[in-house]
Design brief:
- The protein is α+β, with helices and mostly antiparallel strands.
- Strands 13, 16, 20, 22, 23, 24, 25, 26 and 27 form a nine-stranded mixed sheet that branches. Strands 2-1-3-5-6 form a five-stranded antiparallel sheet. A five-stranded antiparallel sheet has the order 9-8-10-11-12, covered by helices on one side.
- The longest helix is centred in the middle third of the chain and has 17 residues.
- The chain is globular and about 90 Å long.
């Protein structure tokens, strides 16, 4: 013990007591998904408060020299008692009554189901110090170590904070309509019971409008249950905003919904509003489930929807490498599904998992905030098989279910979710999100973090060629842009069961007019070939500015693949602004040949639209005066615009208001000026179309050079570049030539130049310029243009290897699961459940993932 005393005394200065605001990682390892419940427990550094599993704590000690760690182990208590009797003197476990977590009446966070053991471990010899051992140590040691231990145990862990454990989904705001709600004196009195919908005679899920007293049924749910939307239709016809759910009225309150505010609300005058229609709130009793109770029921059975779960078949649980489940952190199934698919792609495996030791060795001092580290950690967790083990039995009666549960220990991607969602208005929340939007968000993060070295997002990147043909001159224009996902439209008019759909619609209208409940609607059957044809058919542009005829005219736009990616992602556009949800079945093929959609480029004899500016536009009654200084003199009345500081011309005037509008949208000034110039000052719409069509141009942000000017883009003399800006960029490791080019492309704005140089690394790596900014073989204007974005290309033949399905009427609600083909066997990944798929619903997917077939 004397030796331990001496060690603690020598490292006492490195042992800190957590202060408010310190990030304490006491639930999860920074490099793995080890936790206090794992074998070996969790070691928390008593200086940085980072957590490490037994596999990685030695690495941290060697790298940092830190010796004192708080070792936390938790052992699950046996729970064989039922919910009504704990058998240990504890009160019975209550069912949740609030849509909340960690507060009275909310979901139980089950923090008391573990027995916890805590001690200090000193490295490298792993000497252990318990609380009892501290009692015999010097006061200064005992006090500092005890305070540190107590502070670490009392502090909220980062994962606890990130999951918003003190979360209340029932917090409602006072309705803006409550105080001055108009109520009609129509003599209607509502009885205390025996209600039914005034349109369809439905006797449950009934809502009374607080303006006119109409009793009508609620919304129809995605699965066909619920009401028939009559209360909603009544609001749409009358505009009366507030309704109360009958059966939820008690002396304590009731469910009130505001159609105008599209949310559950509070009504401080509810007793008065109910009394208007003869309802005494103080005598009412609850007979219906509240909306909160309904939402709780959904949360408790999440993942059990029949279509996605392949209900009706016995699913065989799978375990092992590449078959690891992911815990749902609260509406995180969209993230789970996307990441499961991404880590079946070799590019992501190679980038983040194959060289994981190198990634971890190069991690910064706080690896929890490092993108590469956390992605590698997630990938290894999914692929290694270390966490693909059956979940421990929670104590349920095993005879209550004849089917294998299939639940795994799995991994909880808390650090990963917090990191990729940080600062994002949606992905930083616990709300459900669109899996397609998250995929693009994650690809964007990969792009930003892989500006040098291997970039796995290249597996999805492809070029799209857009061909626009002016119908008046028959001249064409070709542009290319980068994309990552093919969005496939759903042509409902091409349904093969159109007669059945029309008959169902006729029956629905009859039922609605007669007040009878409608029958279940059939699902539209759409051929995949029809979706592909809708994607490739020409689009008509009605307000196209043609440089050939110098006027607005009609044009057609055709979209084709200029390259085919290694992995193709197809999104079925089931959700649109016009129609929120298309309930469709599409015969998505296992193999796909898109060779016919290959772009052909300019054809022989085809004339291109001239890339020239329109005729000068000068207001006849405007006397334009030059501005003296470096841009003019007393003999030169050339026009100078405040938004045109670098170039003056005697023959062109730019519409400052249009330029300003484009700049306010976030586009570069020079690009905005060019958009207005090349569309002839014809307004914001034409300029915006030009911007969208030229965003991928290499010189998109380069200064505008007017016809007849002797200078070309980027030939600003080196002497005009601020030397201090050049020095700053060169100090970051770039050459003077690269710094020169970046400053020229951004009008000498240092911040923009730094951002530009990092987003053009591929171009800069291929630069061959001399100190003066010109190539050794000739002037800069005569050089070949820089290469475009790096894309892979090959055959357009693909095979399906994964798809993500969605259940619900909106991408922002419902549930996601994914199916992945592994060793010729379809596997369903439903959060923590990983099973062999018997009936993969390939016709009901939302996102489809294809890989190139190598011939």
């Amino acid at each position: 013990m004397t030796e331990v005393n001496e060690i603690l005394m020598s490292v006492l200065s490195t042992i800190r007591v957590p202060r408010p605001g310190d990030r304490v990682h006491k639930d999860e390892c920074a490099f793995s998904f080890a936790s206090p419940e794992s074998d070996g427990g969790l070691y928390v550094c008593m200086n940085s408060f980072l957590g490490f599993g037994s596999k990685y704590v030695e690495r941290h000690h060697v790298k940092t020299g830190q010796r004192a760690y708080l070792h936390i182990t938790r052992t699950r208590k046996t729970q064989k008692e039922d919910d009504n009797n704990s058998g240990s003197g504890d009160p019975p476990k209550k069912k949740p009554t609030r849509l909340a977590i960690g507060i009275e009446g909310g979901f139980d966070v089950e923090q008391e189901q573990y027995e916890e053991e805590v001690k200090v471990v000193l490295f490298p010899d792993r000497q252990e110090v318990t609380s009892e051992d501290l009692a015999s140590m010097p006061d200064v040691v005992r006090e500092r170590v005890s305070l540190s231990m107590a502070g670490l145990l009392a502090a909220d862990s980062v994962s606890h904070t990130l999951q918003v454990q003190q979360w209340d989904g029932e917090v409602r705001q006072e309705s803006k309509h409550a105080a001055e709600l108009k109520q009609l004196d129509n003599g209607i009195k509502i009885p205390p019971c025996g209600w039914k919908c005034e349109v369809c005679d439905l006797q449950e899920n009934l809502w009374m409008n607080l303006t006119d007293g109409k009793v009508l049924c609620g919304r129809r749910y995605f699965d066909g249950s619920g009401g028939n939307n009559h209360a909603l239709l009544h609001y749409q016809q009358t505009g009366y905003p507030l309704a109360v759910k009958l059966g939820t009225i008690t002396p304590d309150g009731a469910d009130v919904y505001s159609y105008d505010e599209d949310d559950m609300v509070l009504d401080s005058k509810l007793p008065e509003h109910l009394s208007h229609f003869g309802i005494d709130m103080m005598t009412m009793e609850k007979t219906e489930r509240t909306m909160t109770e309904l939402e709780i029921a959904v949360n408790q059975r999440v993942g059990e929807w029949e279509v996605i779960q392949e209900s009706g078949t016995t699913l065989r649980p799978l375990w092992g490498p590449g078959l690891t489940g992911m815990k749902n952190l609260g509406n995180s199934c969209y993230l789970n599904s996307v990441m499961q698919v991404l880590f079946t792609i070799p590019d992501f495996q190679t980038k983040y998992v194959s060289n994981i030791d190198k990634v971890f060795n190069e991690a910064p001092s706080d690896p929890t905030q490092d993108f590469k580290t956390q992605v590698a950690k997630l990938g290894y967790g999914l692929l290694s098989g270390e966490y693909s083990k059956p979940a421990p039995d929670p104590g349920d009666d095993p005879s209550s279910s004849t089917e294998p549960r299939g639940d795994q220990v799995g991994i909880a991607p808390r650090m990963f979710k917090a990191l990729v969602g940080r600062g994002h208005p949606e992905f930083s929340t616990n709300r459900q999100q669109d899996a397609q939007e998250f995929l693009l968000h994650f690809i964007n993060m990969v792009e930003r973090n892989c500006r040098s070295g291997m970039n796995p997002s290249e597996a999805f990147r492809f070029l799209v060629e857009e061909k626009i043909v002016c119908q008046q001159s028959q001249k064409a224009k070709y542009t290319q842009r980068v994309d990552y996902i093919v969005q496939l439209p759903v042509p409902m008019d091409q349904a093969t069961n159109m007669e059945e759909l029309q008959e169902a619609e006729r029956r629905r209208e009859e039922a609605e007019s007669s007040g009878a409940p409608p029958s279940a609607a059939p699902r539209a059957q759409i051929p995949f070939a029809a979706c592909l044809a809708a994607l490739s058919e020409p689009e008509t542009l009605t307000d196209f500015w043609s440089s050939a005829v110098q006027a607005k005219t009609t044009a057609t736009k055709t979209t084709r693949f200029a390259s085919f990616p290694d992995h193709l992602v197809i999104q079925i556009k089931k959700f649109t602004f016009v129609k929120p949800f298309f309930d469709v079945s599409i015969d998505v093929p296992d193999t796909l040949d898109l060779s016919s959609l290959r772009a052909m480029g300019q054809q022989p004899g085809e004339e291109l639209l001239p890339e020239v500016a329109p005729l000068p536009l000068v207001t006849p009654d405007a006397e334009v005066k030059g501005i003296l200084g470096s841009h003019g003199n007393e003999e030169d009345d050339s026009l100078y615009s405040p938004l045109n500081p670098h170039i003056s011309s005697p023959s062109i005037m730019l519409d400052d208001s249009t330029v300003s509008q484009l700049c306010e949208m976030g586009f570069p000034l020079e690009a905005c000026r060019k958009a207005v110039y090349y569309t002839g000052n014809t307004g914001i719409d034409a300029a915006m179309n030009w911007v969208m069509g030229h965003m991928e141009d290499p010189d998109f942000s380069a200064p505008l050079v007017l016809p007849g000017s002797s200078s070309a883009p980027g030939t600003t003399p080196t002497e005009s570049l601020p030397e201090e800006h050049l020095v700053t960029i060169v100090s970051m490791g770039f050459s003077r030539d690269q710094a020169t080019r970046a400053l020229r492309a951004t009008n000498n704005v240092l911040e923009r130049a730094v951002d530009w140089i990092f987003s053009h690394l591929d171009d800069l790596e291929s630069m061959d310029v001399s100190e003066g900014g010109r190539s050794e073989g000739g002037s800069e204007a005569s050089r070949e243009p820089p290469p475009g974005p790096r894309v892979r290309d090959g055959t357009g033949k693909y095979e399906l290897f994964a798809f993500i399905s969605h259940m619900g009427t909106s991408t922002m609600c419902g549930h996601y699961v994914c199916h992945i083909k592994k060793d010729q066997q379809w596997v369903i990944f439903n959060d923590q459940k990983v099973c062999a798929s018997e009936k993969p619903p390939k016709d009901l997917g939302y996102l489809y993932f294809y890989r190139r077939v190598v011939e």
